[in-house]
Amino acid sequence: MNQALFFPNWRDKVIYATARPQPQVLHEDDRVKVVVAGLEPGGQIPPHPGDFGVYHFLEGAGQMAVGDETFAVQAGATVVVPAGATRGMTVQTRLAFIAVRVAP
Helices H, strands E: what count in the chain? Predict the structure, then answer.
């Protein structure tokens, strides 16, 4: 990528899903993927391993599990997940987040 990307309002990109997220790609290359995703109350992301990741929560509330830890997340929270760690999410209120994955 050799030019800036500008998204004036993330709400124009997010899709709120009822069961599993439907992430919308904001940028992707060989090493980095950036998505915005949303879930309705009761939605979840089952625990799964993954690459190094950063999750920044834009609105809503829920829990994010990373390994054996569970974090209460809400708008403004950021979770940094080490490579290989299991991560998952459960949603209490309509939730939106930006996730950045960095491949090894």
Answer: 0, 8
